[in-house]
Amino acid sequence: MKLKLAPGLAIKKSSINGKGCFATVRFRKGKMIAEYTGEKITDAEATRRASHRRVLRICAINSRWSLDGSRGGNGTHYINHSCQPNSFMKILYGHIQFYALRDIKPGEEITIDYEYTLHSDTKRCYCGAANCRGTINKV
Q: What is the rounded CA–CA span in Å between residue 82 and residue 93?
C-alpha cells in the first residue's frame, strides 16, 4: 500500500538519519506544516512496540495515548530530530500538529527537537548542528 503524504511533503534520503521528511512548498514561520497521523494506541502498547523496534515512529498524545505513524502515517513520521530544528510540535485536543519555527524553503528537511522519546537516553544524535547535545533525548 502506497503512503499517502500530507500536502507539501516528500520523503527522501536524509543526511541526518535514514529517510527524512522534506518540504516541497514554502512554509512560512508560524504556519502549520501538517498533522501527525497514525494508529491510535495505548501508552502500554507504545511501550511494548518500542521494546521490539530499533526505529520508532511513535508519538505521544498524552500520558494515556500515542500515535504509531508507521501504521497509517502521512509522512510526518519521517520528521527527524535536530538540536537546531526548523519546526515544533503542538498537541491540541488530541491532535499532533507541526508548525514552522522559521520560514522553510522547498527542498529543506523538516526537523523538530524530540526532547523526550521512548528511546534510551543514550541514543546518539546525528543532526550535525553546531549546538548538538549528542543525544536525542534531553538528559
A: 26
Beta strand 111-112 with 80-81: parallel, antiparallel or unpaired? parallel
How much is the mean pLDDT over the chain?
91
Mind listing the domains of the chain with CATH numbers? 9-112 (2.170.270.10)
Taking Cα atoms as reference points, which of 88, 93, 94, 90 lies closest to residue 110? 88
Q: What residues are paired with 108 via a beta bridge?
A: none
**pLDDT digits 0-9 by tens, 62-81:** 999 999 999 999 999 999 99
